[in-house]
């Protein structure tokens, strides 16, 4: 077969992968000579086919093998050439690896978990999609309660299997209702997490972060509440001169209800937490809402309010982070701007500990 000899010679002489490919197409491609020969087999007499068939197939095999061999040796030669030409300059400084950082909200949540763990609180979590019984009714906010309207709730169009309205939780209180129902008393938990309200301006985002705390035990009174919040705020702001001011207030889920302010001091015109708010260069700012758990809420949690008492509190994690670390625009928290995260973020291995300082920066 003259064509076979020519093809094998051309393959042996081909010095680029493109040439090898062109030869492959001219021999084995749809219009190639091997394919043309294969097609002639159909029209042959059985005798002729028996003698010619093996020759044609053998030709195809030898072309295929020669192509593969040539392709491999060209690739090996190309690699050898690259290895000979390329050098690595080991004296150059290594390029800096991109490193992420811990978002201030995650950092503050870790700090809070650490502080409350030291006081014997466990971290509880629950669904962000809730039903209106766990989010409102069990918290002494019946169907017609005006506070329900105040929450600017995001409702889902459908109801759940029990006919309850579904919504995005407006606070983390339903987590604590679920904990009471499931774990019973005594109970010492914090419930940090995302909450949702239809509200948006410089100081409000439709999603924000809250932490609530709940203690249920026998003989719990306001003194326990005050000591716990004072100990928490001193640890969180890492100062001993934290002064609290408790003001009477109203929440449907607590009775009596207490709003908690901390004293701040003006330093170069900036508010710094700490010191007596009644001092000449001082003032008060509200940081927490709290109170003794309403008897009705204890009963909704499946417990006997004559046997069990408790206190609860709630605050905004985002606001605590802003107060401690000095950011002034809440919206920047959720923009995902790498420069903001680089500035305000925390090193991943800088885990908050009470001995090392909960807010230590690397
Ligand atoms: C605030 C005030 C508060 C609670 C949350 C609570 C939870 C249960 C029972 C009773 Cl299960 N109370 N939570 C109590 C008082 C205040 O939050 O200003 N939050 C941002």
Summarize the structure.
The chain is an alpha+beta fold. It is 40% helix and 22% strand. Strands 1, 5, 6, 7, 8, 9, 10 and 11 form an eight-stranded mixed β-sheet that branches. A three-stranded antiparallel β-sheet has the order 2-4-3.
Question: How would you describe this structure to a colleague?
Answer:
The termini are far apart. This protein has 362 residues and is an alpha+beta fold. 40% of the residues lie in helices and 22% in strands. The protein contains twelve helices and eleven strands. The strands form two sheets. Strands 1, 5, 6, 7, 8, 9, 10 and 11 form an eight-stranded mixed β-sheet that branches. It has a three-stranded antiparallel β-sheet with strand order 2-4-3. It binds 2-{3-[(4-chloropyridin-2-yl)amino]phenoxy}-N-methylacetamide (2NL). 2-{3-[(4-chloropyridin-2-yl)amino]phenoxy}-N-methylacetamide (2NL) binds next to helix 8, strand 6, strand 10 and strand 11.
How many E-type strands? 11
- N- to C-terminal distance: 78 Å
Structural class: alpha+beta
| Helix amount | 40-55%
Distinct ligands: 2-{3-[(4-chloropyridin-2-yl)amino]phenoxy}-N-methylacetamide
Estimate the mean pLDDT confidence: 92
Using the CA coordinates, give the radius of gyration.
37 Å
The largest β sheet comes out as: 8 strands, mixed
Q: Using the alpha-carbon principal axes, give the shape.
A: elongated
Specify the number of helices: 12
Spans where pLDDT lies below 50 across 5 or more residues: none
Strand content: 15-25%
SSE order in H/E notation?
HHHHHEEHHEEHEEHEEEEHEHH
